[in-house]
Amino acid sequence: MSPLKKKKLSKIRKQLDKLDNSLIKIIKRRTNLVKKVLALKEKKNQIVDKKRIRLILKNIRNKSIKNNIDPKITNKIWKNMIFAYIDYEKRNFNKKK
Questions:
Q1: How far is CA 28 from CA 9, 12, 31, 48, 80, in A?
Q2: What are the pLDDT digits (tens) for 10-67?
Q3: Cβ atoms within 10 A of the Cβ of 89, count?
Q4: Domains, the chain
Q5: What letter does residue 96 receive in the DSSP assignment?
Q6: Predicted TM-score of the model (pTM)
């Protein structure tokens, strides 16, 4: 790789790092909302709402297409996020106050 391309790559990676820092803050806010949702659930079987998951993924697909983003990318991201939070809720269900 040429020195110029290395410099450009470094600059883009710094932008990605900055964006990642913003995403971490958003994930923290989302986690706090998930904690509030979990506090309202009375039974463990209320954690997975398949109808809501389908609706979320459908909406994300539509928004991705509208914003010219590959829907396969956003689908994978949201599925992973949804299942990570389902796992979080299951692990923390009995720890609710």
A1: 29, 25, 5, 21, 16
A2: 999 999 999 999 999 999 999 999 999 999 999 999 999 999 999 999 999 999 999 9
A3: 19
A4: 3-95 (1.20.59.10)
A5: -
A6: 0.87
